[in-house]
LRAT domain-containing protein (Urochloa decumbens), 291 residues
Amino acid sequence: MGLLSHRVERSEIKAGDHIYTWRAGYTYSHHGIYVGGSKVVHFTRKKEAGAAGLDSAIAVSSLLSQGTDECPTFPDCGFQLPDSGVVLTCLDCFLRGGALHRFEYGAPPAVFLAKLRGGTCTTAPADGGADAAVRRAMHLLTQNGGFGDYDVFENNCEDFALYCKTGLLPAGGGGDDGEGIGRSGQAASAVGVPLAALLSTPFKLFAAGPLGMAAVTAGVYCAGRYITDIGVRKDVVKVEVEDLAAHLGWRRAKAEEVAAAKKQQQQQPPPPEKKATSRLLPLKRKREICV
């Protein structure tokens, strides 16, 4: 396991592995679940067009029979239900010429903190073995709605793969409004870099020069990555894949309720200002003097 990521050969991976590949010069990584047969199930944005009115069984059979022109090797490469962001592709199309890496589970805290980049390992153990990961991934592939709406910070491809391996989801988000960073270590790293620089600024008086300041920033960054890891966070719950649609629907309804309350609060006119009234003191009656 390297400091940046854990590169593997194709012969080393097996069904149920959480794999990923770096893209755009190590700017970000794309994650998925290897389901065997050189096939990968991963999560992306929902397709814009398709047979939105078909149920899952009809859509599966029709799309599998149609195939795609982009990949002549596998006729079902690119299969994706109309109202879902979960997609099945071949390993070649998933990698797009990039190197293959395997995500590690049950990493010791020291190893996790030593990583230079997030999104390569977690302290959380895998749940149910390889068969459970494949079952969750295939279930979400063939169900309309899949894994919900894609969001780069709250619900991305790494979050999808982490759920397939662990069955864990945030209970309700990281903030009072039901929103927050998901389980993705990649998203935590993206937010953690500027946040670490900001939070480490007060310590500049204690840092001896640029090297000391860099060490403090790195420490804050690593600590931030660690406390947002799914294996450490306390705001996660185990959700069975059959109950995932109901769970996501509840979270969506809660978010919409909070948004509606905020909008209503913003539309309400401000309370009228109270005019200052001057209170007159009672006049004292002059006392009559009798002669």
Notes: The two ends are 112 Å apart (CA to CA). Helices lie at 56-66, 91-95, 109-114, 129-141, 157-166, 185-200, 209-227, 244-267. Residues 49-68, 173-181, 192-200 have pLDDT under 50 and may be disordered. The longest helix spans residues 244-267.
